[in-house]
Task: structure prediction
Amino acid sequence: MTQFLYCKKAEIPGDKKHPAIRAAVATAPTGGMLLSLPRSIELDTRKPTELLLYDPIQGVVRCRCRLFAPVPMGEMRAYRCEILETLSRNQRREDLKISIIIPTDVVYQDRTYPAAIHNISAGGALLVSSFAAQKGELLSFRFPKTSPPIPLTAKILRVDLRPPQVGKLSYGFGCKFVNLSTQNESLLRGYIFQEERRLYRSE
Result:
């Protein structure tokens, strides 16, 4: 269950004869995942069920699961849920984005430049530095706030001239990450989600 610790919503896909069934996801008191559906819906627990999990860190995860031990809870019925197989992951485009200023070093054309990350999501980042680069070029840097730091390669989508820093011109590079592994993307999403929660609680 730990891999879906923050997941709260799920859906059993429908077909031409049956509509999709929305469900709530929670953690059982004894550990593991609980899936709650309207009590009027009874599922066949003798065979695996396909499930879509809407996870804020991993995106939409399609999996096969085993539902068992149904327990009535008011107007709902809760099933224990065991993930048997992950079928696909689809990272949503509406990624959380957080505004931060984190120093880093950017490698561009085999040279290293000091820079700062001004905002970041699981899909890209805004980098600010004094070197000039063009749209479409690649930058490499590390995100230092996770353990271990995440190596990132980003393609420049836009370049903006920024206010001078210490008498030097500076540039903002709006970037999209490329070739980001699933493991590192999940690690980055986890950091962003936790930081967004921290910032929300501090307001």
